[in-house]
Amino acid sequence: xxxxxxxxxxxxxxxxxxxxxxxxxxxxxxxxxxxxxxxxxxxxxxxxxxxxxxxxxxxxxxxxxxxxxxxxxxxxx
Length: 77
Ligand SMILES: [Zn+2]
Fold this sequence. Notes:
Layout: H1 2-27, E1 40-42, E2 49-51, E3 56-58, E4 61-63, H2 66-76
Antiparallel strand pairs: 1-2, 3-4
The chain binds zinc ion.
């Protein structure tokens, strides 16, 4: 009786660990890793990475903001 309870408890524990690790794996690599999932682009002015869909595009480069794009364009002249 007690052994059966222990086995059930162990199975439940393993099940929870499996679920937890799969959730953890799924969450990884989406926002933190720039090489996976959403593509990140480098702002050549302030050297920061921004998500491509949020980036400001100008002169063939991607910037984090319009200010950076203007500052970069001003530097090129
Ligand atoms: Zn910037």
